[in-house]
Amino acid sequence: MDRRRLLLRMRITIGLSSVCLLALAPAVRADRRSFVRSYEYATQPQGNLEFELWNDVVRDGAWDAAATVHRFELEYGITDHWDAALYHVFAQSPGAPFRFDSWRVETRYRLAEKGEWPIDVMLYFEVERPAAFNEPFETEQKLILEREFGRFALVANILGEQKFLHAADKHLWEIDLGARYEVSPALRLAAETWTIHETTSGSTKSKYFAGPSLSVATGKFWLQIGVGFGLGIADTDSAALIRSVLGFNL
Fold first, then answer.
1. pTM of the model
2. Residue 21 lies in a domain
3. Is pLDDT at 33 greater than 60 in this prediction?
4. Cβ-proximal residues to 37 (8 Å cutoff; 6+ apart), any chain
5. pLDDT tens-digit series, residues 99-108
6. Total number of domains constituting the chain
7. SS3 131
């Protein structure tokens, strides 16, 4: 009986110690994510290089027919307000081989220091070169808005994407809305909703999602995990997105 009590006490002690270490861990220095879709008001610090590994499970029907998408990204801080990133995207659909999907280059610029304006504003631009060279480049523009209230923050993204010089073939717009709460510098809890309206050859499909996310961090790495479920509105009856992103300071 004494041995069982001792083992139980040891487990409780180890568990509480782990929680305390997580709670006291310093906030990660780089571009930490808290949401599945929404980008926050952050760029890489000047001279900082970060590696990010993105993993998506995309469901648009039954789970056994879900596709996966993997991104390998390097981000570098040009200044404290301006960064750039290069990433390679790989994908796999059910019954198809693992394949290289695209190269992408993005850049972000923060217009002021956090809290200087009533709403923090950041600009985002991305160019995608599909692996199939017969397909045109794609471009994406994003307006990122954020407002902090102590540990609580609200985030909104307005996004447009189109095939370069072929926008009539395919284009979309998206709105992301998120809220996060910082339990400690190492732990954030978040929830968000987003809607995507994609037009292909004159036909438009609309999707609506919502779901939770969490983010944990240390001084060296951070991890975000979240899920968005289709809300059963328009073309979102059985859609879902599970996303994890792991970031390392190099």
1. 0.86
2. no
3. yes
4. 157, 174, 176, 178, 192, 194, 209, 228, 241, 243
5. 999 999 999 9
6. 1
7. coil
Burial pattern 127-160, b for ≥16 Cβ within 10 A else e, equals ebebeeeeebebbbebebbbebeeeebebbbebe
- Sign of the alpha-carbon torsion through 204, 230, 73, 43: positive
- CATH number of the domain at 224, please: 2.40.160.40
Q: What is the 3-state secondary structure of 197-233?
A: EEEECCEEEEEEEEEEEEEEECCCEEEEEEEEEECCC
> Region 177-206: what's the mean pLDDT?
95
In a domain, 120, yes or no: yes
Residue 172 lies in a domain: yes
Cα dist from 224 to 3, 97, 174, 245, whole Å: 39, 27, 21, 5
Query: How much is the average pLDDT of 212-237?
Result: 90
Joined tokens for residue 190 = 């978040």
- For residue 135, pLDDT over 70 is answered with yes
- For residue 197, what are the domain limits? 27-249
**4 lies in some domain:** no
What is residue 65's predicted lDDT score, i.e. its pLDDT? 83
Give the span between the Cα atoms of 169 and 145, in whole angstroms: 29
User: Parallel, antiparallel, or unpaired for β 170-184 and 239-249?
Assistant: unpaired
* 142, 159 contact by CB (below 8 A): yes
Tokens of 36: 């599945």
**What residues have CB less than 8 Å from 203, skipping those under 6 apart?**
none
Asked if residue 59 lies in contact with residue 241, where contact means CB atoms within 8 angstroms, the answer is yes
